[in-house]
């Protein structure tokens, strides 16, 4: 049974359950949605990420979540908290926030709505001293939302990742401290 972590006006944010990979593959794993995230994944890759997310939640009390649209009951995205785990990043282990919204729900404010709830979760219940978010210069929508959330560009944390194409390098980071977050509430 999934845990409900947060509810917003339009969304339920719940933990990922075993068996959710097929639904993620169906609604989120498209060339357009995954264009800036390393491309479409194989189902076994999604399953492995889900297993990692469930283990992270069991061990640390945070993970990535599914965004369920209250009006339809459909999965419209995923979002949450994980640890920076890219071996090329100098800030491995930091609390990393992120999101992904299915294409037919873009430009409806779901990512921003979900991320306000995720930031609240990160800074109150999880106790993160700060969070980071990773993207690329090419992912304009992503870094614009980071700025809208009050996050600050951290050029000192940038790194190149040969697993991504040239247009998605370098990986850039934004951060937000608990104090910065509290001052904007």
Please, could you describe this protein's structure?
The chain has 185 residues and is an alpha+beta fold. It has a single domain (4-184), classed as Gcn5-related N-acetyltransferase (GNAT) (Aminopeptidase), CATH 3.40.630. It is 31% helix and 25% strand. The chain has five helices and eight strands. Strands 1-2-3-4-5-6-8-7 form an eight-stranded mixed sheet, sandwiched between helices. β1 and β2 (11-15) form a beta hairpin. The mean pLDDT is 95.
What labels describe this entry?
Acyl_CoA_acyltransferase; 8-stranded mixed β-sheet; Aminopeptidase; GNAT_dom; 5 helices; 8 strands; GNAT family N-acetyltransferase; 31% helix; 185 residues
CATH architecture: 3-Layer(aba) Sandwich
Structural class of the helices, strands and pairings?
Answer: alpha+beta
Unreliable residue stretches = none
- Shape, per Cα inertia axes: globular
In short:
It comes from Qipengyuania citrea. By secondary structure, the protein is an alpha+beta fold.
Please describe the topology of this protein.
Elements: E1 4-7, E2 11-15, H1 21-27, H2 43-60, E3 64-69, E4 75-83, E5 95-101, H3 110-126, E6 130-136, H4 140-148, E7 152-153, E8 171-177, H5 178-184
Parallel strand pairs: 5-6
Antiparallel strand pairs: 1-2, 2-3, 3-4, 4-5, 6-8, 7-8
Helix pairs in contact: 1-2
